[in-house]
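User: Please predict the structure of the protein below. I'd like the answer in structure-token form so I can feed it into my own downstream comparison script.

Assistant: Understood. Taking the following sequence of 550 residues as input:
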Amino acid sequence: MGEPSIVLRNSFFMTGDVIILHRAAAGTSVADVLGEVRTELASAFEGENPLNGNEELISRWNNNEYFQVTQTAVAEETYSIVKFSAADDHRSENEYVPSDTFEPENFTTIQTVLAFRQAARESESVQGVLLNWLSGASQGRPIGTGGSGAKPVALTGTPFYKPAFPGIGSLSTSTFVKVFVLDTAPSVGRIHQAQTSFPNHPLLNNLFGTGSHFTIHYNPLQYSTTQSLMEFINDWEVDHHFYDMSDHGTFIAGLIDSALRTRDIQYQIDLLQVLGDKGVGSVESILWGLLQVLAESLANPTDAYVVNCSFTLTTPRLPGSGQALHISETPAPDAAFIRQLEDLDIDLEDLLSLDMLENIFEVITRRRVGFKSLATNIAVVAAAGNQGRSPTTNDRFDAGYPAAFNTVFGVSALDDADQPASYSNRADEPISDGFAIIGGESNGGIFSLSSAQLATNPTPPSINDAIAGLYLAPFPDPTDFDPDSTATVANTVGWAYWSGTSFAAPLVSAAVAIHLAAGQTPSLAAQLLQNGSPGLTIDNEWIIDATLEP
């Protein structure tokens, strides 16, 4: 058949990386994990399997040099993220763009994942196998997909940044709530510099000053013996969003903190760095974050938890299926491509399966029997994505993952007229399970201010209808309309307007946290939010009424 070369549109993954999730008894050593993994997946190199006879791959499989193991103690168990290098070369482009063809290294990676996944179905210790799919706080078209619906703009005038929910009345609080934000994180140096530059910034002081309820946990993963994963992945930039996004996570945390501070709630916000400074992450980094959530929730089972995921995974979409993620205007794989896959004995549905990640979300929320009891105190909220509408049908794109997972509350963005924002994907799958809340628009106006408020807080017409929040990095140059521009201007205010489903999601996370603090379950919280909804969007998403206050 010759050297394989197949076209897979809209795919972003780390060439060579095979991610294996292993679960074992507490205290299991790395050596024992590797021994179990090799034993459990040995059938991948036997019989008619395409890996049989690949002596170079077998040699790598038997050499510890090509493995990295990250372990997390979870109650009586140890979870291990095992990364196996099936090929030598990783993609090294500095732009976040689709790879049009698979070179032999890519093909080896795909075949290895599929063969290991088949072998893992009979395993008790191997929980799943995945390509190291990339993720992003924003991807794709100039409007953005997955996080930023528009570029951040410097805020002038009085910031309206405190979320309030008219539909949620005064609730008695009885339960400590921890909110995990899985996202980007600014450096310690950037934070210290901002404290000097903006000593009276209320959000900066709330997050990092005396009496703070906020902690950053920086990602410890290594890419190689000489370079951390975040250092490596910081060289990757998001297509059409070539600017520093390290404030994406603190912007989100500030929104949640501001909402909870206005209520008598005992809470803590932990930012887990799973995305690099340019808004890019991977299955490996996200798994690390999810395992931290799992460990914490099992160590303190009486607390309540909300997990905010303002990112989307860059998996392709199965044509004609309910699989959810479009990541650009490029159409889904066509019939000719499907025939190529069939000729190469590649099962597309298996290749694109995210069952391992979905299972982890299910374990975290414990909506299946994974541990002895089913928990009712953990909610996961995720941004639906910002691909907007199909250029051919004008239909809104489906929710991305993880928003579309069954155990996750998906969130879409509204403009200030409670209409779906131009960039927003549908909230969830099915869409009636999702919520819609203000996320801002990208073409003039200001977020939900009354005429009286506008009279006392005039806003230049150039300012976007968007969410106000903490922003410490230099701003993208607002006078340069080239979507690929890297030009910046100095940040002299520490505030930004920013729009996107990324910033709609934390408003829902805050609303859910308020309900959980009152001792309610996530399912009851969702029901009460639906009951208090002022209505449905044209696509039948539940609208949550929210305002921002100074």
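That's the full token string. The two ends are 66 Å apart (CA to CA).
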